[in-house]
Amino acid sequence: MARLASMRETGLLLIIAALCVAMGFASPYFLTWDNVRALLLSFSIEGIVVVGMTVLLIVGGIDLSVGSVVCFAMVVTGKLFLMGLDPWTAGLVAIAASALVGALIGGCVTRIGLNHFIASLAFMVIVRGLCLALTQGTPQSLFALPAEFKFIGQGTVAGVPAVILIFVAIVTVSDFALRRASLLRKVFYTGSNEKAALYSGIRTAHVKFWVTVLCSALAGVAGVVYTARFGAATPTFGMGMELNVIAAAVIGGASLKGGSGTVLGAVLGLALLSVVTSSLILLDVSPYWQDVIKGLILLVAVTIDHLLNTRRGSR
């Protein structure tokens, strides 16, 4: 019980629960099934991106291109489908293309020696430009997508949206693997002390490279699911998503300096942001002030992360 009480996830759960109770009194619509379902759907697909970002933060990296890569996967899927390719093959090609973006970023980091921030910032602009070039800046309407493909974004299983089931499956497997799999423990070792990990025989460059690829590939998966959900591909989709994803991971306990974090914590961080956003909308708060409030939440999370790292460093 003492260990449970000290876990960051427990604190986040309590905060989310307290917010939900308070909003239950403040608005009669907040705790309705329709609103809860909308909340879950709002962060389920983005949660897939959060998983990849969390693992990358743990290894000591960061990826500012995930929003652009999500859009890129949507555009590639839509473009190939409109050219006559079946949507499943088009989706797989889009995920592979997204992973290739991650490989290019990882190559810039591990081969050239660029910082993750700079490399991913450059590819954020490059990939967004590709999205606009491939579509000529015009949204692609994909109403002709077959029903079986749309099912992954719009269908339900026993009343539960398929999107949520996909999200839960990815989060469960990722969280378990990150906590238990000896192979993925190298991610923590590399993020905690890369030089020590290298001396102990861990190929840290390979670890950082493949984690970067994983992050982009999961963004590609999210893009394909978004395509099935909306039946369209908009070249401006996903702008600002990277900030929301990074904020969720940091709020959930992932350190910007690497070496710590959990998938579950990051997902709870995303859930907290979604609850806050939903609450502000129901309370009729101006969209401009919503951004200010979410920015303050991120500032508090980063400050706490900095103070915790400073305390650990002084011991």
Please tell me the overall pLDDT.
86
The span between the termini is 26 Å
- The percent range for helix content is over 70%
What is the overall shape? globular
- Tally of individual helices: 14
Number of strands: 4
Describe it for me?
Strand 2 and strand 3 form a beta hairpin. The strands form 2 sheets. The protein has a two-stranded antiparallel ribbon with strand order 1-4. Helices cover 76% and strands 3% of the residues. Mean pLDDT is 86; it is low at 1-6. The protein has helices spanning 2-6, 8-26, 33-58, 66-82, 87-112, 116-135, 147-154, 162-180, 185-192, 194-199, 204-230, 241-251, 263-282, 287-314, and strands at 140-141, 156-157, 160-161, 232-233. Helix 4 packs antiparallel against helix 5. It starts with a helix and ends with a helix. By secondary structure, it is mainly α.
